């Protein structure tokens, strides 16, 4: 019985991963070499997270975005071997964004007291 449960859980996990990869592969941004965090809408929180990024990461982000804009203007996409792969897409901005949101929440809680 326990092995059946373990097998079902393993299959569910692999199904979720397969579904995540499929959804990721349908996204158009990967054809331009963009990463997930390159496409976030720049709210105030995202702008603050970007301000905190190390210079090297910010420069790389700007390069990917400029290259994507140039490709879009020319109505081209990168060769398929240069498309962003699911495994290579790093959520580089997420830790900074989570930190900003935590600080914002802490500040709101502090002001309520």
TrEMBL record:
Keywords: Electron transport, Membrane, Mitochondrion, Mitochondrion inner membrane, Respiratory chain, Transport. GO terms for biological process: mitochondrial electron transport, ubiquinol to cytochrome c. The keyword Membrane applies. It is found in: Mitochondrion inner membrane. It is a peripheral membrane protein. Its main location: mitochondrion. The keyword Membrane applies. It comes from the Eukaryota. GO terms for cellular component: mitochondrial inner membrane; respiratory chain complex III. InterPro entries: QCR7, QCR7_sf. Coiled coil: none annotated. Component of the ubiquinol-cytochrome c oxidoreductase, a multisubunit transmembrane complex that is part of the mitochondrial electron transport chain which drives oxidative phosphorylation. Belongs to the UQCRB/QCR7 family. PANTHER family: CYTOCHROME B-C1 COMPLEX SUBUNIT 7, UBIQUINOL-CYTOCHROME C REDUCTASE COMPLEX 14 KD PROTEIN. Component of the ubiquinol-cytochrome c oxidoreductase (cytochrome b-c1 complex, complex III, CIII), a multisubunit enzyme composed of 11 subunits. The complex is composed of 3 respiratory subunits cytochrome b, cytochrome c1 and Rieske protein UQCRFS1, 2 core protein subunits UQCRC1/QCR1 and UQCRC2/QCR2, and 6 low-molecular weight protein subunits UQCRH/QCR6, UQCRB/QCR7, UQCRQ/QCR8, UQCR10/QCR9, UQCR11/QCR10 and subunit 9, the cleavage product of Rieske protein UQCRFS1. Component of the ubiquinol-cytochrome c oxidoreductase (cytochrome b-c1 complex, complex III, CIII), a multisubunit enzyme composed of 3 respiratory subunits cytochrome b, cytochrome c1 and Rieske protein, 2 core protein subunits, and additional low-molecular weight protein subunits. The complex exists as an obligatory dimer and forms supercomplexes (SCs) in the inner mitochondrial membrane with cytochrome c oxidase (complex IV, CIV). This is Cytochrome b-c1 complex subunit 7. It comes from Artemia franciscana.
